[in-house]
Specification:
There is one protein chain. The protein has 21 helices and 22 strands. It is α+β, with helices and mostly antiparallel strands. 38% of the residues lie in helices and 20% in strands. The strands form 4 sheets. Strands 5-4-3-6-2-1-7-8 form an 8-stranded mixed beta sheet, with helices on one face. It folds into 4 domains: 219 residues, 2-Layer Sandwich (Heat Shock Protein 90), CATH 3.30.565; 138 residues, Ribosomal Protein S5, domain 2, CATH 3.30.230.80; 79 residues, Rossmann fold; 117 residues, Four Helix Bundle (Hemerythrin (Met), subunit A). Bound molecules: adenosine-5'-diphosphate and magnesium ion (MG). Magnesium ion binds next to helix 2.
Length: 629
């Protein structure tokens, strides 16, 4: 019998395949099952026009057989089969276009070849050599007399010879490699349980049943209650569920079905908050079944979570990639789900560029779809949307701020902020719709929490004028006003700003206080940059404002993350000249300047505290207070 060399290209390919360290050797099973399913599909198609086939759709199956002793795993199908010519052409050569790209891809990726590329480049069959040191293909083609045996131990070539096989179809027997240093590296592929898991993971929606003899423990005959004895019996089981939920119409599937699919598939005890489906035919065809989880996963935000985030990508019922990161934009990466596209695998095996374009098209469709559905939830079920926003909103906000607000227009309407007047989270659009006729700005104020901001003296004048303030209680919010600048042409303005742009802001005559202000400035020295009369304070005696530039929230942020920068906001001490405390200070300046200086220090410290900043000298402050008794 003549041993044939693989073609040069194929040989190099094979060597690459076997000697590269693939992290996911397991995908070989997906590849063999996909080939079996393709072969069945071909014969099934034939049976529609050729009554001699004598098979019904229900007669087709893929069978996995394990022989632990012989270390073999066999994948059989009753599909179309191959003749000698097919074996030469299909298993002896790798499609030329695929191999070139594969190599390029591999070179581009340096030393970390991604396992996923195998199937995408139509070299599926060869992946079996990752786990097998010898492969036998016994096959009989439909409509032909003889059967054939193809055998190979890898790169050094293959043989083809006539053989005996009773039925049409193909049996691929892998002799599984011995384990190397890593325990169970290959032997696990000889265990039913592992194989079952792999079928569920990669081939659950293959359209024909994948069967395997599965061990069951049953009570041994003659064993008693006192001395129970179990024995293992084997029974054929179908391992795959075959019909994917996302291929069924939205109205054919119940809410419960969607929910239990999500819970099982994504191991979440909680039902999803939102189910999003899409079925698109056209330029690019795909089905998507997406879920917004009700709760954040326990590892939300961690590196591990980042790694797992993304949707699963299927093509023709076969899982191609999990997770596929490129299908979701960063701000929606909390979305789980499945996307299936028939266009994909075809393009992937031919040309990567095209594949990229298809994927991008699907990704931009999905982005739009998710956005629309979230806005719909915001409108239809506000409570649910608010709960959603609690959980994942920050991610959207960060997305809106990224790249200088490049996605502002897309994301701004999804954002919520606590409102001073509504006492609940509101959207920017709701805020603007409530703006007073002569109101120029969208007012906001930053602080630790809504209740803390609500007590800040800077809110007084705006509240007094019946104007709404958005409370920015997240560190990211501080950058929002700068990045967005405006919403619906209304600029953002901090309620702590010197100039609130209020209509007919009556300018009080503050000349007469200038002496006292100078006294306070002199007393406090460099601690404050200016002392001014406040036009916004109503009941509070003092507050700090920062003017343009670095705000107090930024100062706090940088103190936490980059203390070395020593980023400081300006401290402008604003004084409520109508307040009794100021009046007392004025009076003391004439009668007891020492006491007046103490008042100034105390007022300043109070302003610092209210701004949420740390006191430079807390015990000095309390001493000062006590010294007044
Ligand atoms: P691809 O599936 O992308 O074509 P593979 O390397 O997986 O690449 O398979 C190569 C070819 O071998 C298939 O296209 C098919 O023609 C043939 N083949 C593989 N497995 C089978 C099988 N079980 N039955 C019939 N033909 C098969
Ligand atoms: Mg294949």
């Amino acid at each position: 019998m003549e041993k044939k060399e693989f073609q040069a290209e194929s040989k190099r390919m094979l060597e690459l395949m076997i000697h590269s360290i693939y992290t996911h050797k397991e995908i070989f099973l997906r590849e063999l099952i996909s080939n079996a399913s393709d072969a069945i599909e071909k014969l099934n198609y034939r049976s529609l026009t050729d009554e001699n086939v004598g098979m019904n759709r229900d007669d087709f199956a893929i069978t996995l057989t394990v022989d632990r002793e012989a270390r073999t795993l066999t994948v059989s199908d009753n599909g179309i089969g191959m003749n000698a010519e097919d074996l030469e052409k299909d298993l002896g050569v790798i499609a030329a276009s695929g191999s070139g790209l594969f190599k390029k891809e591999l070179a581009g990726k340096g030393a970390s070849p991604e396992n996923e590329v195998i199937g995408q480049f139509g070299v599926g069959f060869y992946s079996a050599f990752m786990v097998a040191d010898h492969i036998r293909v016994l096959t009989k083609k439909y409509g032909e007399e003889g059967a054939w045996l193809w055998e190979s131990s890898g790169a050094d070539g293959y043989t083809v010879e006539p053989a005996e096989k009773a039925t049409v179809g193909t049996e691929i027997t892998l002799h599984i490699r011995e384990d190397g240093e890593e325990k169970d590296e290959y032997s696990r592929f000889l265990r039913e349980y592992t194989l079952e898991q792999l079928v569920r993971k990669y081939s659950d929606y293959v359209r024909y049943p994948i069967r395997m003899l599965m061990p069951h423990s049953v009570k041994k005959e003659g064993s008693s209650e006192e001395k129970p004895e179990n024995e293992e019996v084997y029974e054929y089981e179908t391992l795959n569920s075959m019909l994917p939920l996302w291929k069924r119409g939205r109205f054919e599937v119940t809410k419960e079905e969607y929910e239990s699919f999500y819970q099982e598939h994504f191991a979440d005890p909680e039902a999803p908050r939102l189910v999003i489906t899409a079925s698109v035919e056209g330029n690019v065809s795909y089905q998507a079944l997406l879920f917004v989880p009700a709760k954040a996963p326990f590892n939300y935000g961690t590196e591990q979570w980042q790694k797992e985030a993304g949707v699963q990508l299927y093509s023709a019922g076969v899982m191609i990639m999990d997770p596929c990161r490129d299908l979701l934009p960063e701000e929606f990466s909390f979305v789980r789900g499945v996307v299936e596209s028939p266009d994909l695998s075809l393009n992937i095996s031919r040309e990567l560029l095209q594949h990229d374009r298809q994927l991008k098209l699907i990704a931009s469709n999905l982005e739009k779809k998710i956005r629309t559905e979230l806005l719909k939830l915001q409108k239809d079920d506000r409570a649910s949307y608010e709960a959603f926003y609690e959980t994942f909103g920050r991610q959207i906000k960060v997305g809106a701020l990224e790249d200088g607000g490049a996605k502002k227009d897309k994301l701004q309407d999804l954002l919520l902020f606590y409102s001073s007047s509504e006492k609940k989270p509101v959207t920017l659009s709701e805020y603007v719709s409530r703006m007073k006729e002569d109101q120029k700005y969208i007012y906001y104020l930053s602080g630790e929490s809504a209740s803390a901001v609500d007590r800040m003296p800077q809110t007084e004048i705006l509240k007094d004028r019946g104007m709404e303030i958005l409370y920015f209680t997240d560190r990211a919010d501080e950058f929002l006003a700068d990045t967005f600048y405006s919403y619906q042409e209304k600029p953002f303005r901090s309620a702590a700003d010197d100039n609130l742009g209020l209509p007919e802001e009556e300018k009080k005559d503050t000349k007469k206080y200038e002496g006292t202000f100078a006294f306070i400035k002199e007393t406090l020295g460099d601690k404050v940059s200016e002392v001014v009369a406040s036009s916004r304070l109503k009941t509070h005696p003092v507050c700090l404002s920062s003017g343009d530039g670095v705000t107090f929230e930024m100062e706090k942020y940088f103190a936490a993350v980059r203390p070395d920068l020593d980023m400081k906001a300006r401290r402008i001490l604003e004084i409520n000249t109508d307040h009794a405390a100021f009046k007392a200070l004025e009076k003391a300046r004439e009668t007891d300047p020492e006491k007046a200086a103490k008042y100034a220090e105390i007022l300043y410290s109070q302003a610092v505290l209210i701004a949420g900043l740390p006191l430079e000298d807390p015990s000095g402050y309390t001493d000062l207070l006590c010294s007044l008794w």
